[in-house]
Amino acid sequence: MVRKLGAWMGAVAALMGGFGAMSGAHADDHGMRWGHEGAEPRVMIISMFGPEGQVWLDHLGPWTKIKVPGLSPDYPTVSCNRERVCVLTTGMGHSNAAASTMALVFSKVFDLSHTYFMVAGIAGINPEQGTLGSVGWARYLVDFGLQWEIDAREIPPGWTTGYLGINTKSPIEKPPLDYRTEVFQLNEALLQKAYALSKNVVLSDGPDAQAARAKFSYAPANQPPIVLQCDTLAGDTWFSGTALGQRASEWTRILTDGKGVYCTTQQEDNATYEALKRGASLKLVDLNRVAVLRAGSDFDRPYAGQTSSDNLLNYASQGGFLIALQNLYLAGNPLVQAITKNWPAWRDGVPAK
């Protein structure tokens, strides 16, 4: 269940309240001239909507705003600090994510050839793998939208779902991956570094989230949030339901040859990665420097006795939104700091130790 805006607008307004950012060209402590072609970020944090980016802006400033042609009109600038950490907000959904990321890469406003990218956003979460506020580093990015669908009321006898891979004959067959964006695997070395740096971080929690997760009768749904290694599923259609969640798990296993574990669901990550991949084909970026972090803001299915519609329509009442945002920073910042403060060890690739 992809989770973003809706009834969170009050919290969003509070989060968006005033940070002082500089604009135009600015020389940082290392002589970097932000706003001039060739500036070299060390970390580029990619968020999808305002509050996801704001949590970084609130903690790591002061900032210089750099206008990049082709970004979303809602988020037309990239913010960069003196440690060469930058924050891009793409706009929500596949189209915005792909367009903004492509604009960033191909504008050449920045030299991104040595930059580490961290996609950091909130997501729906599978209660069989995590809970509200849990944060997952992904190994696999799986696209849930690239499937055929038969009306669930008309599925053939013996089928458990109306979904099946494109150009297959049944829901359990692996498709030929003709789109070439159905599944991506991230760099294992960076994944393990990111997880090791963050796995013992104490995460934020709250009473509303505790009350919501207590309605589940099983772990880890009813346990406190932790940092996980588990995989993320992209699709522009928000979903809610046990059967849909089970299909998400099955689809992840099919596309990863049984290796992936579906944990979080969002809208953008395959689109973002494909845009970076296009840049990598011209050596503008290095795909071995891409990490994806998603935090559970609400459950992708109901607890026993709850309807799927209630779970979907009242997602904001679960209390996971604010803690998920906070936990993106808490879990992601150790990697950001490791890279920026030990740049000689990271500049040429993920260090062995």
Which sequence of SSEs, written as H and E, runs from N to C?
A: HEEEEHEEEHEEEEEEHHEEHEHEHHH
The shape is globular
Largest sheet: 13 strands, mixed
β content, as a range?
15-25%
Number of strands: 17
Instruction: From the alpha carbons, calculate the radius of gyration and give it in angstroms.
Output: 20 Å
Cα separation of the termini = 37 Å
Query: Number of helical runs?
Result: 10
Q: Given the helix and strand composition, which structural class is it?
A: alpha/beta
Q: Helicity, in percent?
A: 25-40%
Kindly state the mean pLDDT as a whole number? 91
Question: What descriptors fit this protein?
Answer:
353 residues; alpha/beta; two-stranded antiparallel sheet; 10 helices; 17 strands; disordered N terminus
Can you describe what's shown?
It is built from 10 helices and 17 strands. It has helices at residues 9-15, 50-60, 93-107, 188-198, 207-213, 242-255, 269-280, 308-313, 321-341, 343-346; strands at 21-23, 26-27, 33-34, 43-47, 63-67, 77-80, 85-89, 116-125, 135-137, 140-143, 147-149, 163-165, 183-185, 227-229, 231-234, 262-266, 290-299. It starts with 8 loop residues before the first helix and ends in a 7-residue tail after the last helix.
How would the blueprint of this fold be written?
Blueprint (H helix, E strand, L loop, with lengths): L8 H7 L5 E3 L2 E2 L5 E2 L8 E5 L2 H11 L2 E5 L9 E4 L4 E5 L3 H15 L8 E10 L9 E3 L2 E4 L3 E3 L13 E3 L17 E3 L2 H11 L8 H7 L13 E3 L1 E4 L7 H14 L6 E5 L2 H12 L9 E10 L8 H6 L7 H21 L1 H4 L7
Parallel strand pairs: 1-5, 4-7, 4-8, 8-17, 9-14, 10-15, 15-16
Antiparallel strand pairs: 2-3, 5-6, 6-7, 8-16, 9-17, 10-13, 11-12
Helix pairs in contact: 2-9, 3-7, 4-9
